[in-house]
Amino acid sequence: MPSVGQDLGAYLRQEMMPTVWCPGCGHGIIAQGIAAALKEVGTDLDQVVVVGGIGCSGRTPFYMNTGAMHTTHGRALAFATGLKMARPQLTVIVAMGDGDALAIGGNHFIHAARRNIDLTVVLYNNSIYGMTGGQSAPTTPQGSHSTTTPLGSIEPNFDAPTLAIAAGATFVARSTTFDFQEMPKLIARAIRHPGFSMVEVLSQCPTYFGRLNRLGEAPEMLFLERDQTIPLHDLPPVEITREVLVGKRPIGVFREEAMPEYTQRYRELCAAAGGVYDA
Amino acid sequence: MRLIQGNEAVALGAAAAGCDFYAGYPITPATEIMEQMARILPARGGVFIQMEDELSAVAAAIGAAWGGARAMTATSGPGFSLMQEHIGYAAMTQTPCVIVDSQRGGPSTGLPTLPAQGEVMQARFGSHGDRVAITLTASSVLSAYEVTARAFALSETYRQPVIVLLDAVLSHMRENVDLPEITPVPRETAASAQDRQPFGDNPFVPFGEGRRTVVTGLAHDESGLPKTAGGKAVERMLRSLEERLRHDAREITHFQAYRLEDASVALLAYGITARAAHEAVDALRQEGVAAGLLDLQTLWPFPDYLVQEIAERVDTILVPELNLGQYVIAVQAAVQGRCRVVPLGRADGDLFTPEEIAAAAREVQDAKGGIVHA
Fold this sequence. Notes:
The complex is a heterodimer. Chain A has helices at 27-41, 60-63, 76-86, 98-104, 106-115, 160-167, 182-192, 206-212, 218-227, 241-246, 262-273; strands at residues 48-52, 67-70, 91-97, 120-125, 128-129, 135-136, 171-176, 197-202, 229-231, 249-256. Chain A is α/β, with parallel strands linked by helices. Chain A has a single domain, classed as Thiamin diphosphate (ThDP)-binding fold, Pyr/PP domains (Rossmann fold), CATH 3.40.50. Chain A is globular. Chain B has 2 domains: 2-177, 3-Layer(aba) Sandwich (Rossmann fold); 254-367, 3-Layer(aba) Sandwich (Rossmann fold), CATH 3.40.50.920. By secondary structure, chain B is an alpha/beta fold. In chain B, 40% of the residues lie in helices and 22% in strands. In chain B, the strands form 3 sheets. In chain B, strands 2, 3, 4, 5, 6, 7, 8 and 14 form an 8-stranded mixed beta sheet that branches. A 5-stranded mixed beta sheet of chain B has the order 11-13-12-15-16, sandwiched between helices. At the A-B interface, strand 2, helix 3, helix 5 and helix 11 of A face helix 2, helix 3, helix 4 and strand 10 of B.
């Protein structure tokens, strides 16, 4: 059973420790979650590449004892798409931040989802830009404070699972760093899912989002994650309006559907043209 | 003999060199390269993918290279601008790949269907930070084929992105050609590279071959691990590459010299402009002007040795180019007063006619007082 807190030493790149993440940051819990999921899935780590963008989340590849590709801001999915197409037997996990995936990388996010290519996105959502010092992100809740919304944000925020589903992702889930038992299981399911999968993990940034919005330190923020989310199975099955009805963010699996995967469809395309893909 | 288009020659040259991955985004006048690859690659089991923009097209090519592919993308001015960050990433991560840029009138959206040579400096300096920038160009359909294949070979040898510059006319014009066979450059196997570091002057080993390499655009040393002190290692890598390129300059530099032996005015031209310059030389010679042509296929690294050698022998180097004076800056820097260097630029979407180049050559001859007879 994957969970954090077990011995994951073999899955982490020890020479890169300690991490750059601030005390109390939730990202280490998510990275542990990826390691635990890899252990659960049991893939040969020589055949795994963790791809990251730029920002706090983007550092994840350095800490995983797998192939690691730390790319450019927002474009991790584009690099990952080329990598996966060139060598489809690789397990490719893409660690992205909320600004990384949904602002600068929004275009790549929706198109990778649309193709249903077998990549697993772990979206670290801490509602703010951490690496650059606390600016507002497309996930910053309306009314929240950041260094670029000192008077409170007037912009509505993206809902990543809704966006992913609309774009065509075939496995879509949300969890939190508070749910450290459940989160790695969802990531493992996402890795096993043959198609584009995304697990959004709500994470705490006590250094910026917590401080600028007076939400307390990491423990208080973790309890907020608990109090502001609700498991999907506790909700009535009414699409879209459910979140509005209860004022909480649902967690769990939103979509899990078997649909033709991109490299598989590409294999068929080559065969029809007389070529052998991935020979 | 086959009658083919410049863009088709690029696609065929890539395929002949073993290209098995193409990612692109449609843009005039480069689109036919992509359309050709969409037909060629699936039938060979290679990968063709249309991406959502040029940023992702070159990113996918770099990702594919790390998946073991010989990867290419092609674009034109606006797309080439968008690709710059990732060209720097490929340079920093020592990733072999090929980027073709069919130049059209600029700046901005400019003249999408008309030729230009406005990206000569962008190819060299367009991405932030220092890097070497191997850049090739072609002045015929056949050389578009050969130069593209050569770009793949150079990208393997130096583990760097290599840029091929075309222009709207060469991309779209057709010529009868016999395409020579090309042998793809072999890659070292992961086994033979086993005890070597993943970066620096070491072989390129893709993911999935038993190594868990760390690839990053952050400063890193030969181990690949990011280090703030890695700046020294980055400089070491850059200087080492520069040194290798300097050492190999005579091999890397491809050019055609035409009637230069006894010339007093040398036309230094490249790409489509070299064709008009070639005719201009004949016209000038008929009038008794001792003109010659250096048609450069390797633009960067700049062939100092070659240009300096010519500058010692001639009175004037005239540099016609479809921009307002770009490559001529590098020529002046290399010549360092050994002879006169005269720019001849236009950026209105038209080509130079041979007569325009000849007229400019006559003028510089007259200006220095009298025609030198051959």
